[in-house]
Amino acid sequence: MKLLILRTTANFLLPLLLLFSLFLLLRGHYLPGGGFVGGIIAAIAFVLHAFAFGLRSTRKLLRVHPISFMPVGLGLAVFSALLPLLKGLPVMTGLWLDEPFPVVGLVGSALLFDVGVYLVVLGVALTIIFTISESV
Amino acid sequence: MTNNLIILPVMLQFTLAIVLLFFCKRIAAQKIISIAGSIVAVVIAVGLFRQVYEKSILTMQAGNWKAPFGITFVADTFSTTMILLASLSALAVAVFSTVSIKRARMKFGYFPSFHFLIMGLNGAFLTGDIFNLYVWFEVIIISSFVFITLGGKKVQIEGAVKYFTLNFLASMIFLTAIAVLYGLAGSLNMADLSGKIQTIKNQGVVQVIAILFLVGFGIKSAIFPLYFWLPDSYHTPQAAISSIFAGLLTKVGIYALLRVFSLVFIPDDFMKTLVVILGGLTLFSGGLGALVQTNMRKMFSYMIVCHIGYMIGGIGMFTAAALSGAVFYLIHDIIVKTNLFLAGGLIYKINGEVNMKRMGSMYEQYPALSLLVAVPLFSLIGVPPLSGFWPKINLMSESFVTGNYYLLGCIIFGSFITLFVITRFWSEVFWKKREALARKPYIRYFDQMSRSQKTFLITPIVFLSIISLYIGLGAENIFRLSNHIAAELVDTSTYIDAVLGAATTNVTP
Amino acid sequence: MEIILAIIVGLLYASGIYLMLRRSLVKLVVGLVLLGNGVNLLIFLLGGLVRGKPPIIPAMDRVLGEIYADPVPQALILTAIVISFGMQSFAIVLIKRTYIVLGTDDMDEIHTTEEEDD
């Protein structure tokens, strides 16, 4: 195959891009970034892998169908939106833990929501791209 | 005061849709969850309605951001009524679709999309923020795209292209209007805008925004020069799907028109005249369209367009009595149109035909069922004392009082055309004798179904017919409700106070 | 800057609508994309162009000291972009499906819905 360079770099880029997407996800509350961008970059990582190794091996790598990320992500988002109900606050009010976590910083329900968005975007983007490229 | 009960109709449907996504391949479980969830939704809607109707408007500031800055959810009588009607229709359609939708289509996410659609409707009824309204509209149309293409037949794909293009265009016009409005007034909260819009010096631009909103919502609710996508696409999906489209999708456009024009842009004489003319033309052209159709479902689609005209005419006159008539018509139309398309689906299952010329002998074969189907059909015409009669009388007398003789003529013409079309339909389908046609192998006919399947097809129609009869026979209660809503629409101060807090009352004139 | 943006918005609207009026389905989708971008740019423009900081109050202060950019238009645009992302991918799949089923890219050929069928 002539894709040697692409294949070699894709092998290294997949974990790097995934790490970068997590970085963007975590810094997203106060700085540019967030669940949407993170999810898109994670999707790009897998798309790059699919370019280099073919769709089938990417599917094997993912193990689950990308569509199944969506209900999990939506569920997380709804859960984080409904959490304030327990404290008698309006839906979607931001709740924050008192102590900051190491590395991650202060954790609140906004982060949980962002993780949900991340998963939904990843699932949607991969489903769309895989569907379009499979049916060509 | 903040009350989390408001968001429950939205959150329930959202949760249902997510749970159903987990049961993607297990159809039996999906059916049970969907029906049970819809029953719970009706219970919640009744609870919310009672609380709002008997006590006061409820609001919820999402994320605890104070009113003009955050997104406010408002439940006044109008929105809770709409939620109640939507959940009643949704329950009926959910039951009907367990039998009428093919198994293969259920595997492609019929039920999750259904609940996403209802979530979008509930959100659109509840939101007090104009951009949020746009987002809910998008939720609705994206779910409806799934529905309209589900199955992927040739007709469906073609209908979908038209449906998609026009609805996308409508969304873009809506969004443009929001952009200009935000640039002008600097707010998106409808209660806040209500005060701010009157202080703007350049009222010409405000007029332009109002027209943009009229066009955007007009495409969605299929008013006169903008409705051509509807009869070309609504008859293509399956009966259960087109019934939810017919009952609720165009009506959410009417709801948005009523909300925006009563709260933000109070129509002046020019606007009133324009809307009245559009309403009359909608009645006229929709009626004429229905007249020439022999395809049952296309005829029903034109009936949707025709009857939108009554509500548009009511909005155009913009007096308390006319608005009350329009709201009453809205209440009647949601139930009847849903029922009509469900009945159409049942007739299709019995005959295996959609062309009226090739149908017949239905009264002979199924007398009891025919009488049942007669309820939505004759409510549609407005045969007294059925439900269509009362709002029409109200609208007619009001157009007489306000001197809109042109609209009066159109209303009478529209009613007459409906009468003619429906009686022709009745005599073709129910009374005409017909030789038995060769059976089509790909349709499951009604008499091939098991007893429980038949029950699942008929129960929703009975259910909606009972509601329809109640609207007709208990018209006094419905009138009290619609007068209450119209009073709230004309005098919006209670709404604004509930959203912004009573302190700001003296700012708004 | 406002003038340039206004002209670009106008161009995007005009070309979007022009392409939508063409008979080709592919041009229709390109037109929809252009129109969507035009609307997003319009929101951005009408929200007011300010060279400012993000509106985040520092931990020790109680009010914003510096000029800040209005965050609402950005939130609106982000939402609109996400929505049009979904819409456009749907449109692409839809026209592809249309081409497979009907074997044509010409909108004048799409008239089965007006014919008498089943």
What is this structure, in a nutshell?
With 509 residues, chain B is mainly alpha-helical.
How is this structure best described in words?
- The complex is a heterotrimer of chains A (136), B (509) and C (118).
- Chain A has helices at 4-27, 35-53, 55-62, 69-82, 109-134.
- Chain A is mostly helical and 136 residues long.
- Chain A has one domain.
- Chain B has one domain.
- Chain B is globular.
- Chain C has a single domain, classed as Helix Hairpins (Orthogonal Bundle).
- Chain C contains three helices and no strands.
- Chain C has helices at residues 2-21, 25-46, 71-102.
- In chain C, α1 packs antiparallel against α2 (25-46).
- Chain C starts with a helix and ends in a 16-residue tail after the last helix.
Q: How many domains comprise the coordinates of chain A?
A: 1
| Average pLDDT over all residues of chain C | 85
Looking at how many chains there are and whether they match, the oligomeric state comes to heterotrimer
% residues in beta strands of chain C: under 5%
Rg of chain C, Cα atoms, Å:
21 Å
The proportion of residues forming helix of chain C, as a percent range, comes to 55-70%
Radius of gyration of chain A: 17 Å
Would you tell me the overall average pLDDT of chain A? 86
Segments of chain C where pLDDT lies below 50 for 5+ residues? none
CATH architecture of chain C: Orthogonal Bundle
Characterize the biggest β-sheet of chain A: none
- How many separate domains of chain C? 1
Task: Give short descriptive properties of this protein.
heterotrimer; A: 136 residues; mainly alpha; 67% helix; C: 118 residues; Helix Hairpins; 0% strand
Would you spell out the secondary-structure blueprint of this structure?
The complex is a heterotrimer of chains A (136), B (509) and C (118).
Chain A: H1 4-27, H2 35-53, H3 55-62, H4 69-82, H5 109-134
Chain B: H1 8-22, H2 27-54, E1 58-61, E2 72-75, H3 77-100, H4 103-107, H5 110-126, H6 130-149, H7 154-185, H8 190-199, H9 203-221, H10 229-233, H11 239-263, H12 269-291, H13 296-317, H14 320-351, H15 362-365, H16 367-381, H17 389-401, H18 405-431, H19 451-473, H20 475-490, H21 493-500
Antiparallel strand pairs in B: 1-2
Helix pairs in contact in B: 1-2, 1-5, 2-3, 3-5, 3-11, 3-14, 3-19, 5-6, 6-7, 6-11, 7-9, 9-11, 11-13, 11-14, 12-13, 12-18, 13-14, 13-17, 13-18, 14-16, 14-17, 14-19, 14-20, 16-18, 16-19, 17-18, 19-20
Chain C: H1 2-21, H2 25-46, H3 71-102
